[in-house]
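tmp note - Phosphate transporter
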Amino acid sequence: MTQEHGDPRHLETLDRDLARFSSLEIATTYVGRPMVGPAVSLVFVVLAGLTAALFFGQTNNSLIVIVAACLGAYMALNIGANDVANNMGPAVGANALSMGGAIAIAVVFESAGALLAGGDVVSTIAKGIIAPESMATAEMFIWAMMAALLSAALWVNLATWVGAPVSTTHSVVGGVMGAGIVAAGFGAVNWSTMSKIAASWVISPILGGAIAALFLWFIKSKIIYQNDKIAAARKWVPVLVGIMAGAFSAYLALKGFKKVIQFDLTTTLLIGAVAGVLSWIIMIPVIRRKSEGLENRNKSLKTLFGIPLVVSAALLSFAHGANDVANAVGPLAAIVQASQSGNFTDAVSIPFWVMVLGAFGISFGLLLFGPKLIRMVGSQITKLNPMRAYCVALSAAITVILASWLGIPVSSTHIAVGGVFGVGFFREWDTERRIKKARLTMPDRPTYPAAERRRRKLVRRSHFMTIIAAWVITVPAAAILSGTILFLITLVMGAS
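out:
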């Protein structure tokens, strides 16, 4: 018996059997993993409904509030899966943050932004897209908001599935518009507001991309292309960090804390200037100390941009939680108010429990489904390093401030992704420029043929076209979906 167990052939058979079991275990895990996310999401949606039943079970229209809470939870999950990737993607793509670290930071700061600085008073229907008084009854208004919420969530879910970062706010706007048209006709739509939103589709990414490209040009010309890169970094990195600190201080004063205290634009810019100068002064000795002993190469520069990039990602998440969550759960708050009081023409103050639902939903959505879009934004559009990712984050803050000053409604999603495109296209232009310059100075130097250079483009055209197409059709797609849902609801309600 002992001899048999000591037989090498027996050991080989045992190894093969164990390998089969190991392969089976891996395969089972692989098959089961895709079901974990939907299962946990379903549990969260059901818990949201049960919580609403616990608080509103004895009130009028309690069933409507319960269903609306489930839809709000579903919408919040989709915000976490799609929207938050724009803030964290560049930092992850640049390897300044791990995927786990990015998710942890985003969960904390998105939730803090939503609960501490979010919940601002919003107009009854998504920032005045539809005139509330055009609705015939409170019941029709509630069904219209239900349709808008469901259609927006379904559209963002579809976009996440195909890997396209879209604006959840624009999805809600489209949903509200479509439901409003079915409920009250085309005349109920505030077309001047809609035209501004349509203009932001173009303005947001172009402005974000241009600002990101401008800062990347500055970093390349003043630091990367210098003979003594470390000396140049000691001079200019504190300035860049000061600009970032000033921009984010102004951004948070303008957008992040508007529930706590309101600042006018002049005061906001003054706050940003003071924060920027202080940060610049503080960072001079810090960067000098961090740069000691570094080699005179591009790789060394990445360490100097790591911490500012992580901080910027956290601040973007806080501001996003304060801003966009309220827009997305606004229809849920409107449903709760209309169902409880019958009042649907006044402004809606978002209840705290709705913001908690939004904050938790975003956290779960990001944790379960966020990595796909984070990878898309961070590494699959174009290759990012800490310097390029820093330019993207900085452009997001500056673009929002500029847009607020100009009175243009912009999408944080479009700005961030536009910044990634801007950095990528600038790198393509800069590479071509350097090749042409090298060809003039060294005509005998071998270069790639034009076809090969096209193949090596630094921005993936397939992703570029997919994202642009998703942006263009977000509002009309959400509107058509919402209008169809409301039409079906009215048919069912009429038949019953």
